[in-house]
Amino acid sequence: MEYGYRYAVLHRKDYDNWEFKEILKVLSPQRGERILDIGCGTGEFCYILKKNYRVTPVGIDINKNAIEIASSIYSDISFRNIRVDEIKGEEYDAATMIEVIEHLPDPLYAMHRIRGLLKSGGRVAVSTPNRWAFIHKLKSMLTGCDYLYDPLHIQEFDPRGLASLFLHAGFVLDKVYTKPLGVPFVRHISKNLYWNMRSGAFGIHIFLLAHRKG
Questions:
Q1: What is the C-alpha separation between 206 and 76, in angstroms, rounded?
Q2: Which long-range contacts link 146-149 to residues 24+ away (Cβ below 8 Å)?
Q3: How far apart are alpha carbons 58 and 95 in whole angstroms?
């Protein structure tokens, strides 16, 4: 498997994706901000940022096909086929990484680079699959539906490890939690409860907000 057209299409998300909504709650974008979306894929999250929050999004991704799709659909948004360490002389109010950090060969280096792109007090919001989501992993093994852990993931994180990474990169932590509930069958009882309640350390995804010191 590699990053290409098929990967880009398979990983497209709907505009009302629950993970988008959670990242937006965590980040609280402000009108007029310049926000870097790292691993932007086919551009849906950048579109939401521009349309609903009146910010200036910039999307980057190493998947050339994903950037071509994003640029063709959202022609008024800047998309680039580059890595974060190729950005020079730019400054952002915030950065987002939605299911990206687990793909990076050297996440600590990447976090240092991102911190260098942020203004004083600039925020970074991240989501990533949780390696402690044991019940969901077991369910995936039993059903053959491994929807969180694709072959291109290099490193999985737990909440403590992810927090430690950002501290070592010089960030100040604001929030670290997991969602949705770590018990899959709850979804069949109440979808609202399942998707909206935090779940301690064992939820499917970790959400983190940090900022650069002033």
A1: 31
A2: 148/204
A3: 9
Q: Which residue has the tokens 């053959």?
A: 144
- For residue range 22-38, list pLDDT tens digits in order: 999 999 999 999 999 99
Which CATH superfamily hosts domain 5-130+150-177+201-212? Answer: Vaccinia Virus protein VP39 (3.40.50.150)
Q: What distances in angstroms separate CA 48 from CA 21, 23, 147, one per listed residue?
A: 10, 12, 24
The rounded Cα 27 to chain-centroid distance in angstroms is: 11
* Cα 69 to the center of its chain, rounded Å: 19
Distance CA 63, CA 159 (A): 27
Tens digit of each residue's pLDDT (9 = 90 or more) over 46-70: 999 999 999 999 999 999 999 999 9
What are the angstrom distances between the C-alpha of 208 and each of 64, 70, 167? 27, 26, 12
Residue boundaries of the structural domains of the chain? 5-130+150-177+201-212
Q: Rounded CA gap, 76 and 56, in Å?
A: 10
